Amino acid sequence: MSNNKLNNSQEEIFENHESSSQELTEEDIIRENPNITQDNSEKTCSELNDEISNYVHKINYDIGYFYWLLYIYSAFWNNISTPINLAITILTALTTGQSASQNLISTSLNTQLGIAVLLLSIFNTFFRPYHQLTFNRQVTKKWCKLGTKFDKLYYNKDYNNKDRFIKLKKLQNLFDEVNLLKREHESNYFIDFFFIILKYIYIRNRIFWKSSKLIKIKNINNINAQTQTNINSNLAESVV
Fold first, then answer.
1. DSSP symbols for 172-195
2. In the chain, which residue ranges form alpha helices assigned H by DSSP?
């Protein structure tokens, strides 16, 4: 009964998150902030770029971390549910064949197989590994959806401070969605411990949704481009 309640609560959490997440459009941002600055001074650009960079790094890590974590969860329950269901099917077929023919296997072996089927069925009913697998796959898809939204924002170019401000607001909205889904995560301490081992042995620096090296390179290119723009502006002013 308690396990059924837990599974029902997991489904309710997933449904509540789906209904609570709202897409923030550019029109919404402009309507809420009618006086968006378009001042392209170095100080303002630098401040906006720093804030954008902070959100990008945090969101990139969180989405990557929980994507990998839920991937391990799904792999764990998949490697449990499939062998158990296959074993129950085969053992049930053997005991059913023995009941029909009486000559398929010995009586003692038939008794042992019956006990094994009973124990596997109890485990399968109580822990419901297939349900856990299905649920974790659904949550993994949700993290992939957030990752796709992050990709769109990451590759979206900003030409002025208005674009930067809109991008920052969308990143903040995505940051709230990520934190909401993080709070709704229900831990399995055994799998979490196994994930920590895999993280430090195999995954390591690949825990991010996007390569951290790629983000660093893009940040350097943005800084260089902004510096070049400022130099050109200063040269134009000096000529005039």
1. HHHHHHHHHHHHT----HHHHHHH
2. 2-20, 26-32, 42-101, 107-127, 129-155, 161-183, 189-198, 212-239
> DSSP for 146-168?
HHHHHHHHHH----SHHHHHHHH
Say if residues 198 and 69 touch (Cβ distance below 8 Å). Answer: no
Residue 165 has pLDDT above 80, yes or no: yes
- The reported pLDDT for the residue numbered 231 is 42
- Residue 77 · residue 129 · CB < 8 Å: yes
Q: How many CA atoms lie within 13 A of 185 on its CB side?
A: 23
Confidence of residue 181 (pLDDT cuts 50, 70, 90): very high
The pLDDT score that the predictor gives to residue 240 is 42
Residue the block writes with tokens 């002013």: 237
Dihedral sign (CA 36, 40, 41, 45): positive
CB count, 10 Å around CB of 119? 10
The string of pLDDT tens digits covering residues 89-127 is: 888 888 887 777 767 777 788 788 888 888 988 888 888
Q: On the CB side of 239, how many CA atoms lie within 13 Å of its CA? A: 6
Residue 139 · residue 70 · CB < 8 Å: yes
> Would you call 84 exposed, middle or buried from its count of C-beta atoms within 10 A (0-12, 13-18, 19+)?
middle
